[in-house]
Amino acid sequence: xxxxxxxxxxxxxxxxxxxxxxxxxxxxxxxxxxxxxxxxxxxxxxxxxxxxxxxxxxxxxxxxxxxxxxxxxxxxxxxxxxxxxxxxxxxxxxxxxxxxxxxxxxxxxxxxxxxxxxxxxxxxxxxxxxxxxxxxxxxxxxxxxxxxxxxxxxxxxxxxxxxxxxxxxxxxxxxxxxxxxxxxxxxxxxxxxxxxxxxxxxxxxxxxxxxxxxxxxxxxxxxxxxxxxxxxxxxxxxxxxxxxxxxxxxxxxxxxxxxxxxxxxxxxxxxxxxxxxxxxxxxxxxxxxxxxxxxxxxxxxxxxxxxxxxxxxxxxxxxxxxxxxxxxxxxxxxxxxxxxxxxxxxxxxxxxxxxxxxxxxxxxxxxxxxxxxxxxxxxxxxxxxxxxxxxxxxxx
Amino acid sequence: xxxxxxxxxxxxxxxxxxxxxxxxxxxxxxxxxxxxxxxxxxxxxxxxxxxxxxxxxxxxxxxxxxxxxxxxxxxxxxxxxxxxxxxxxxxxxxxxxxxxxxxxxxxxxxxxxxxxxxxxxxxxxxxxxxxxxxxxxxxxxxxxxxxxxxxxxxxxxxxxxxxxxxxxxxxxxxxxxxxxxxxxxxxxxxxxxxxxxxxxxxxxxxxxxxxxxxxxxxxxxxxxxxxxxxxxxxxxxxxxxxxxxxxxxxxxxxxxxxxxxxxxxxxxxxxxxxxxxxx
Lengths: 396, 279
Known about the structure:
Largest sheet of chain B: 8 strands, parallel
Oligomer: heterodimer
Structural class of chain A: mainly alpha
Distance between the termini of chain B: 41 Å
Shape of chain A: globular
Order of helices and strands of chain B: HHEHHEHEHEHEHEHEEEHEHH
CATH architecture of chain B: Alpha-Beta Barrel
Structural class of chain B: alpha/beta
Strand order of the largest sheet of chain A: 1-4
């Protein structure tokens, strides 16, 4: 009997040691805890976009969903938004550089959590989600139908025209640009719904906030070690900040940015240039925000030579589903991306001013831990959530 | 269609009389004080392509230094009237942070100084805590012996340190030390042989308007400031033309005489005493 009791005592102790050791190895300091808590709570409150009068309108969401899958919005009639932003592929296409009607220079960004962005696209050439939706329609390499072509299609097509009327309360008018922008706004209403769900990290973060020991213990030890690196020595959280894991800005991550022979992708520098020339910005006549407070960022954005070669700091929620990574898809996996920062060529970064990025020289285990952490930013249930539903066909 | 005669007249005017050339609509010539053609850039661009970019940007002169140095020599050989060769103490770009402790850098410099002719040494990265180290000391000594300009990416302490070692040195302070006019002004006041380039800087002008603080600095030291692109990665060669256009845009916000000085005259005046080294 004593032997049996002792056996259970030893077994209990062994189990305690085995489970407690990895956890105690990554007990977070008060400073680390503060940093971790900044990455939540999630989801963020969803407020309508004041620059888009149909933001949050269910009829606009339905119209946007129809437009998203409509190949007639390309000049060839074979490419839709969903060609490069596949719902079954993390709203991207798995290619390094995407291909619409022709190949483009950049990787298709995922569409997750766009509603929280300040700037749009790898170069931030658009200052609203509705303006971003117009870009591929104008680019001949992508869909290229243009403002007049898109407006003509909507006017001529009974179903699209019906949707338009339901959403905007009037038939599509003679002003091509107005109709065109309204399509961007309907698409934006749909894309605003693509918000990622809760993740194992969110459960851990909330357990940390609520002092829930059992909830904290459920989070894998490797992810905890990766999280410590993320907010600590790796300094990843400096740019991948806040609940969406992005500061919403642009950075030179030391990634080569030749777009092809004799061509460099100027990144944010070119983006600001395009923004200033575009008629579809928040400074223009299509901004529905009467206060124009939404346009402050656009009015004050400044062009700097350091912007040349800077690209969007993407959010990291569901990152595991959206490879390859970087603006031209040069890094295939999350492990490759971590390795890039671990072996960073600092000479590619300018030596002047405040240097944020440093070569991390992570061990193999540390790199694996960071990947384990990033994996916990994947929503518990992911995959295609969007289909063209029968109610979308009311206007047929 | 521009006639051949008019083209020749405009070109001649641009070469000989920049003010007259501007009056004819030619772009303001620019002395770009901060160009690199390092080994990785030379792998991406032929010498012909690189020279064509400099010409397309409307550069009158370019102070060129390169990690690996072969790029500088190749550009100078191809365009001796355009390129001013500067000897950089780096064989590869990765030596930026290590060169001050690497005695073999001295051998490299001595060898290159024996074999080729230069107007400057730099751009090198040197900070206050490093100026007394043996390798930078020897580099400054070599520059003194060969009467070369020093192109220093440095903080104020290192600039002071260079002048401590060689009071007659002529120093081009890269990026104006990434300092503001409140720091740059007193430094220019303190050191009569200090010039500064604005490479990789943008805060002195926005939307074609010159910032008030910088405008005051330019007015107070009209002969001491110049511009530069800084092609520190191969991709930045595709920014040279854009940078020159941006520069001309904000220079238009200054009095024409001051604009011309910053655009090219200051660079020409700074480099003139060193041109004899090329003969």
